[in-house]
Amino acid sequence: MRKVSQTREKMAKEKAEEDAIARQREARDKMHALREKLDGEVDKNGLLEQLKATDEGLARAMAEDEELQNAKMQQRRALLRARRKNKQAQEVEDQRIKDKVDMIEEEQQERQAISEDYLRKMFKRSADADGEETKEEKQKRLDLLNEYL
């Protein structure tokens, strides 16, 4: 009986060892499955965080680009306004210069007409004068004529 009891004990020990090994394997497998699950979730969470960060970066970049484009458009508009204003100022200046030149030409024409009239009257008076002209009067008349010509 001893042999039988030893064999039973031995078998019980072996079974206990096998059960312990099976429990260890089962615990190891559960732990491994749990790690994989956590790693998968962590990877998913990490990927979601990366995606979120990328989306935020893109949104910021788009907002900055839009602000930059708006600033450029404002600069262009300001340049166009300045060009338009300068063009109008140039047109006004050109018109003022043209008017001034016209006025000067008109004054010169009037002076010339007045000078011609004055010379005609001078020579006409001299010819109509009763007495003879003195050399001084003649010289004065010739000087005026030379000055006019």
β-strand percent reads under 5%
Helix-residue proportion: over 70%
Shape: rod-shaped
- What does the main sheet amount to? none
Average predicted confidence as pLDDT: 83
Q: Number of folding domains?
A: 1
Radius of gyration equals 59 Å
Q: State the separation between the terminal residues, measured CA to CA.
A: 166 Å
Give the strand tally.
0
Q: From the helix content, strand content and strand pairing, which structural class follows?
A: mainly alpha
SSE series? HH
Description:
The protein is mostly helical. It has one domain. The protein is built from two helices and no strands. The chain has helices at about 1-130, 135-149. Helix 1 runs antiparallel to helix 2. The protein is rod-shaped. The N and C termini lie far apart (about 165 Å).
Q: What attributes does this structure have?
A:
mainly alpha, 2 helices, 149 residues, 95% helix, 0% strand
